[in-house]
Amino acid sequence: MSFDAALLWAIATALIAGATRGFSGFGGALIFMPLVGAVFSPKLAAPTLLVIDTVLTLPMVLQAMRACIWRQVAPLGLGAVAAVPLGVWLLEEIDPVVLRWAIATLAVALLMLLILGRGWQAPHSLAAKLGIGALSGMLGGAAQLSGPPVVVYWLGTGQNAALVRANLFAFFALTTLASGTAYVSRGLVTAEVLKLSLVLGPTYALGLVAGARGFRLANDRQFRLIAYWVIALSAVASVPLLDPLLRP
Question: Does the predicted model carry a pTM greater than 0.85?
Answer without folding.
Answer: no
